[in-house]
Structures are given as structure tokens and as C-alpha cells.
Amino acid sequence: xxxxxxxxxxxxxxxxxxxxxxxxxxxTLGGFVGIFFISWISFYFTGAGGAALIVPSMGASAVLxxxxxxxxxxxxxxxxGGQLVSAAVGVACYQLFPxxxxxxxxxxxxxxxxxxxxxxxxxxxxxxxxxxxxxxxAQIHELGFGYVLTPVLLNTIIILTVAIVFNSFxxxxxxxxxxxxxSDKPSSKEKKSFRYIDKENIDRALxxxxxxxxxxxxxxxNIFALALEHAQSxxxxxxxxxxxxxxxxSKHGAEWSVRQIIDEHKSDDANKDMVIYRVVEGQGLKxxxxxxxxxxxxxxxxxxxxxx
Length: 308
Fold this sequence. Notes:
Elements: H1 2-13, H2 21-46, H3 57-67, H4 76-96, H5 101-119, H6 125-135, H7 138-143, H8 146-168, E1 182-183, H9 199-209, H10 217-232, E2 246-248, E3 257-265, E4 274-282, E5 288-292, H11 293-299, E6 302-306
Antiparallel strand pairs: 1-6, 2-3, 2-6, 3-4, 4-5
Helix pairs in contact: 2-3, 2-8, 3-6, 3-8, 4-5, 4-6, 4-8, 5-6, 9-10
Organism: hydrothermal vent metagenome
Transmembrane segments: 21-45, 76-97, 103-122, 153-172
InterPro entries: HPP (IPR007065), TM_HPP (IPR058581)
């Protein structure tokens, strides 16, 4: 009873316990590396200090690109476009109303949100970037529209570069998300209609809800498909293990792995029905081994498809 109430409280507060410790550690390290390089490189090139060296909102951007690298609001266009347009809007509002900071502040954040919507680059830290342009120090105000280039553009380029390089070291992560080599979605030739809700229908549903969610229609499609798979097939059947196809164990963090079936020896005897596989991503990369088709099926959680 106590455990059930505890779970209800966690759900009420919006606390998610599904992230692995490895993922937490990688996100923590990523945030440190990103902000370290922003500070170091910015100081090296500008010699400036304080807010003129690093925009405070970069801390929030670091949370997105390192803790939620596959999120819609974390992607490169959202990061770069959101930060730059917000910086420009903030500077313009301050210059129009330098003696009315309360008005300039509200306009800066409100118009920044509107501009990000129009340009399809919603990035929450952009609101803080716009606000700093208004309520920042005299050093910031003296920069004028130079604030957009230094520190905002410089900071953004650095954190974008670090995010791409850093996330590439962890095979279950890729930034931007389009760099993922494998997808849960089959190609159009292999598509199984009963497992997938059309992307167009998801787009219509999002339009009906008229809300911004930090997931793309493709992400939602994959989530729905996986949920249906789990509901309909709690275990993977050995007959679904096919030569040339890719499979994953869906483990979190460093235990994540993708294997491809590269050869097989079929037999009606389950103990002699063998497959040979190669690890193509994640733990054990480039290793090859063999096992029975049944043993391989027990390892598999779902099939993956090469990204189109």
C-alpha cells in the first residue's frame, strides 16, 4: 500500500525514474565538458569576463543537448536559431525602451517566443538569452547587436560542436538525432501496417491538440509501435530472427547493443538451428559469435532498421 502511494506521489510530481545511472553520469559529464569549453574558448578569443564571456542561458542549453540529446527542442536548428533570434529580439527591445525595463523585458521574452515559433526553432533557453540582453550589465548593453555575435553566436557554436563530438562517443546517443544509424521504423518496403500508425495521423493529432511537445512525429510513431509490440508480443519468437536483419537488446547506456545476423544454419532441431551474428553498434562492437536461434531470440527485445 505504501509503495503504491509512493508511486502515485512520484507521478503527481512528474518524477521519472526510467533513466539509467549510466545515462545520468554521461549527461553530468557532458554538461561539465560543454560549459568548460565555452568558458575556456570564449576567454581565449575575447579576453572578456562575466556575462560578456558566457551567456547564462547556455547552462540551460547544456541541459538539453547533453541530458536530452534526442529531444526536438535540443536539435541544432532549435539551438542555433532559438539562441540567435532571441538575442537579436532582446537587443532590439532594450534599444527601443532603454528607460522602461519592465516593458522591454516582457516584450523581449514574448517576442522571442513568437519569433521562435515562426522560425520553427523553439528552444526554451532562448527566452533567458533575450532577457539578459535587457536586464544584463552595462557591459552587455554596450555591445549592442554585437551581443548576438559575441558572446551568443560564439557560445552557441562551441556548445553545438562539443555536443556533436561528445555524444558520438556513446553509441546509444547521437546528436543531432538524424545521425542515428538505426531506427525503430522499417523502410516503406518492409513496413507492417498493423504495427504502425501513419505519421500523417500523428501530425493531425498534434495539430488538433495545438500544443508543442518535445518529441517529433517520428519519435511518437516509434513509441506507439513499440508499445503495441510489447502488448502483442511479450517475447520475441525465434522464427522472427532473419538473415541480414538487425536486432537490439534495448538495454540502457553502455549495455545497449545492436547485432546483425550475418549467417545461419537452419535445422528443424532447435538445438542445431544456429545463427552467426556481428555486433554493429554498442557493447562488443565488431565482435562476432554464434548461438542457437532460440538463444538469440531470448536476447532480442526488438528489431531495428538501417536509417534511411
